């Protein structure tokens, strides 16, 4: 009887430990999903209109976020003719809830003082931003969404391009245009449909 009792106790202990582990894993998963709620609703994309291509940054949450930078380059005959093949990094800006803001080619100044034409197209690379709770994130069209404060593994392309503070590294900084892009300091916003409250 003692042996049977020991076996029963061992089985009970094993299943209790398994249940506790499952509950802990579920709690961690729920916590991670909660932490990503707002960040998952911050996106960027390109779209076309009669005025050419637009680079759009959208906030589908009901909280503002702070854009730390948006690295992009352009395809443009104007830039090639002036040997201005630089990357651009949009300056910090606060994006209001349920809002999308636009960057259009004519907003970009070149080294010769001229602007890009409407025929230019954007190649967006990395959006870096902080959410309402102060967590720092990075999003890429090809690599997805990453928490820069907690994710243990980041894409090599990101680590090559940015430091721990989401600032461009020296190898990348030398390719970023140093021309003052004053039009990017005051991005125009429009209401964005499909907003969802953060839980």
Describe what this molecule looks like in 3D:
It contains four helices and ten strands; from the N terminus they run H-E-E-E-H-E-E-E-E-E-E-H-H-E. It has helices spanning 2-35, 77-81, 156-161, 170-173, and strands at residues 42-49, 52-59, 65-75, 88-90, 93-95, 99-103, 121-130, 136-140, 144-147, 189-191. With 199 residues, it is α+β, with helices and mostly antiparallel strands. Helix content is 25%, strand content 30%. Residues 23-28 have low confidence and may be disordered. The protein is elongated, with a radius of gyration of 23 Å. It starts with a helix and ends in an 8-residue tail after the last strand. Strands 3, 4, 5, 7, 8 and 9 form a six-stranded antiparallel β-sheet that branches.
């Amino acid at each position: 009887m003692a042996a049977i009792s020991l076996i029963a106790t061992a089985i009970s202990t094993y299943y209790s430990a398994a249940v506790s582990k499952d509950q802990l894993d579920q709690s961690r998963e729920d916590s991670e999903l909660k932490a990503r709620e707002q960040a998952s609703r911050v996106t960027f994309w390109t779209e076309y209109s009669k005025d050419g291509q637009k680079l759009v940054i959208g906030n589908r949450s009901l909280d503002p976020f702070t854009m730390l930078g948006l690295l992009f380059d352009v395809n443009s005959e104007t830039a090639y003719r002036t040997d201005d093949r630089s990357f651009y990094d949009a300056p910090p800006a606060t994006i209001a809830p349920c809002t999308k803001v636009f960057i259009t080619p004519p907003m970009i100044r070149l080294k010769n003082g001229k602007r890009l034409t409407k025929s230019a197209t954007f190649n967006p690379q990395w959006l870096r931003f902080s959410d309402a709770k102060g967590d720092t994130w990075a999003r890429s069209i090809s690599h997805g969404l990453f928490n820069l404060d907690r994710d243990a593994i980041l894409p090599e392309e990101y680590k090559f391009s940015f430091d721990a503070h989401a600032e461009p590294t020296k190898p990348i900084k030398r390719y970023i245009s140093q021309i003052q892009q004053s039009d990017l300091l005051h991005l125009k916003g429009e209401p964005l449909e499909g907003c969802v409250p953060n839980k």
